[in-house]
Structure formats: structure tokens, C-alpha cells
Amino acid sequence: MSIADGVDSTTDMGEAMMGFLAIFAQMERRFIQRRTRSGLAEARAQGRVGGRPRALNSLQTQTAVRMSDEGHRVRDIAKTLKVSEPTIYRYLSAAEK
């Protein structure tokens, strides 16, 4: 059975078939979620970390904070560290917390 088979959802039998298809779709979605979570947990256990790499390392972050404390403009800090100005603002904001 597939959607291309022309199930008439206005009849009792068609409505029941659509319900079954929805149940199977939901079940498959949960299987995918479990496999994904399991795979991520396994990767973490092996020391792998997902996501985008950080723009600045800890030394660069300290440099940005020091330069800001010394009165340098964010534009100049960003050019020095070769990142965007919004990145500098994010790191400075996080350093204040």
C-alpha cells in the first residue's frame, strides 16, 4: 500500500488506512530518533564532539578581552584576530559572565 494507490480518506476504510499509515510513520520517526541519540552517545563516549568549531581558542579570547580592557575598538580587535565584529561581541559578552 502506498499513497499513490489512491486511498479515499472520506470512507471508513480509507480513514482507517490513513490512521495506520500515520501510526507507522510515527513509529519510524521514533526509531530514527533513538538511533540518532544512540549514535551521538556512542560518539561522545569515543571522545568525538559534534558541531561547528569555535572561532577563537582560549588564548585568542584572553587577547580579545585584554585588548578590550585596554580600550581598543571592537573593529580593531576583530581585524587582529581575523574574525567578524559580532564574534568579538559574543566572546566579550560571554567573558563578562
Care to describe what's here?
This protein is mainly alpha-helical and 97 residues long. The protein has two domains: 3-45; 58-96. Helices cover 68% and strands 0% of the residues. It is built from four helices and no strands. It has helices at residues 12-45, 58-69, 74-81, 85-96. Helix 2 packs antiparallel against helix 3, helix 2 (58-69) packs across helix 4 (85-96) and helix 3 packs across helix 4. The longest helix has 34 residues, at 12-45.
Summarize the structure.
With 97 residues, this protein is mainly alpha-helical. It has helices spanning 12-45, 58-69, 74-81, 85-96. The longest helix is centred in the N-terminal third of the chain and has 34 residues, at 12-45.
Radius of gyration: 26 Å
Overall strand count? 0
Overall pLDDT, averaged?
92
Uncertain runs: none
Cα(first) to Cα(last) distance is 57 Å
**How many structural domains are formed by the residues?**
2
Query: How many helical stretches?
Result: 4
Give the structural class. Answer: mainly alpha
Question: What level of helicity do the residues show?
Answer: 55-70%
**Sheet having the most strands:** none
The H-and-E topology, N to C, reads as HHHH
Coarse morphology: elongated
Estimate the strand proportion.
Answer: under 5%
